[in-house]
């Protein structure tokens, strides 16, 4: 029998399960990276086994492996060119559906894939919702060549901007610098609070050596928030309003079934 899911995993699972219902046969979709996105990939794998026909562009090597494992056809973005829908997790999401992403180090591919989609849907547990972005350290992907100079340039560029802090740390994986799928490093920027996310994103991306930052401004179209009790709230910017779905735990095996909409 599988181990019981923690409340946070239940929240991630139900958000992913609800968002998987947006996927229709014939679609080309983008698959995000992270633990919430992994639930989505598993949910879609179940639907593929039941006959759903989709082609998917993963946003990381991790997601690509999982997608293949569960039977989803994987294609490159160059092959797909444009996608119907991308579903991905987030580290923070504010009231305008602007995001901080990159906790998993995949925000470069995630941003390219989300931007090449008709719609981006974010799936998250309720703890990811914030009033103002910035408590989560902002990931900045930088090329390895001269990364310490890039780090100084980043810290200098923040002087005068509406942020609380400006210290950066090189992300590590054990004793070595973390390396992204594109062969780059990540600087995690401790800001505390971001006053003007659009301005900050533009400033950061102009610095030589910076490849991409984890701010997603005006990219997300809808937010699916899961709760540990099985409730899921969907907020769609195009439709306006919030709709609620509830999933109930069935028996001891932690399989959720939908009970109300
Ligand atoms: O941006 C990401 C990876 O680069 C993830 O979507 C983000 O870190 C959320 O991860 P999780 O679903 O595990 O909480």
State the low-pLDDT regions, or none.
none
Question: What structural class results from the helix and strand content?
Answer: alpha/beta
Might you state the CATH topology name of the largest domain?
Rossmann fold
Which strand order do you get reading across the main beta sheet? 3-2-1-4-7-15-16-17-18
Strand content: 25-35%
> What's the end-to-end separation, in Å?
29 Å
* Structure annotation, total helices: 7
Classified by CATH, the class of the largest domain is: Alpha Beta
Q: Would you list the SSEs in sequence order as H and E?
A: HEHEHEHEEEHEEHEEEEHEEEEEE
* Assembly category: single chain
Q: Give a quick account of the main beta sheet: strands, pairing sense, barrel closure.
A: 9 strands, mixed
Helix content range of the residues, please?
25-40%
Small-molecule components bound:
ribulose-5-phosphate
| Secondary-structure arrangement, i.e. CATH architecture of the largest domain | 3-Layer(aba) Sandwich
Q: What would you report as the Rg, rounded to the nearest angstrom?
A: 18 Å
Number of domains: 2
Compute the average pLDDT: 94
Family: Belongs to the ribose 5-phosphate isomerase family.
Keywords: Isomerase
Pfam families: Rib_5-P_isom_A
InterPro entries: NagB/RpiA_transferase-like (IPR037171), Ribose5P_isomerase_typA_subgr (IPR020672), Ribose5P_isomerase_type_A (IPR004788)
